[in-house]
Write a structure and sequence with these properties.
9 strands, Rossmann fold, globular
Length: 237
């Protein structure tokens, strides 16, 4: 799910425009080559995160999906656990899980989350299903190839729609009917997938895609859309 890079290198790359412009074409090619070898599980290529990254989003989400005993929340692509710790601050009565493919990241998450009651596991279909189904699944900046997506008008080779759709369907199948999927900052629209008709968008002023993240059609062609507000979905059937 993630291709690891030192946090300092990732932050320099993402925040320094000159470095970004110089290296983006190289990384674009490398990620595209890796797609040929691992088309099924690779989404976001960077794994950097930080604590209290989305406080307004988390507050809005907690107002829609209430913290109650019996509620199960999954952080999909939890990386080193900072997002999971944020979730725990808002969901103290719920059962909270974190999952990622990167075992080194999960070890860091285990140290960060020690004593919080959060359950972590390696992201496989079997493990996700074993711990589910979930009331809320959160995937923030997971189904995305940012910042490479800002440098192309066609993302179909870098990140095919079929890979995105397969990942969304995987999460949909593990969400209870009446439960919620948060797909925040994604390169494609969830409503374009085959499970789209079974999901109802739930809008909120704080649940909006980062305007720097471009949006693409099923074909991989870039759309002229910013401030996309279909981020949270309720499973209707």
């Amino acid at each position: 799910m993630t291709m690891r890079a030192p946090k300092w290198l990732s932050r320099i790359y993402q925040r320094n425009s000159r470095v970004h412009l110089a290296l983006a074409p190289i990384r674009h090619g490398l990620v595209a080559l890796r797609n040929l070898a691992r088309p099924g599980d690779l989404h976001q290529a960077w794994g950097t995160t930080q604590l209290n990254r989305r406080p307004k989003l988390m507050k809005a989400l907690s107002e829609i999906v209430r913290d109650e005993a019996g509620v199960k929340v999954l952080s999909f692509g939890c990386s080193s656990g900072e997002e999971v710790l944020d979730i725990r601050q808002y969901y103290r009565h719920a059962t909270v899980f974190g999952t990622d493919l990167n075992r080194k990241s999960l070890k860091k998450a285990q140290r960060l989350l020690r004593g919080t009651g959060v359950q972590l596991f390696v992201s496989t279909d079997e493990n996700i299903q074993e711990h589910g189904p979930y009331t809320l699944i959160m995937a923030c900046s997971v189904f995305i190839r940012h910042p490479e997506d800002t440098h192309t008008d066609d993302i179909s080779t870098l990140y095919p729609f079929e890979v995105f759709e397969r990942g969304i369907c995987r999460l949909f199948e593990n969400t209870i009917v009446g439960g919620y999927l948060l797909i925040h900052n994604a390169d494609y629209r969830v409503t374009d997938t085959r499970v789209g008709p079974r999901l109802r968008p739930v809008r909120h002023g704080e649940l909006v895609q980062n305007p720097r993240v471009p949006l693409f059609a099923r074909t991989g062609r870039k759309l002229g859309v910013t401030g996309y507000d279909e981020q949270l979905f309720r499973r209707e059937s």
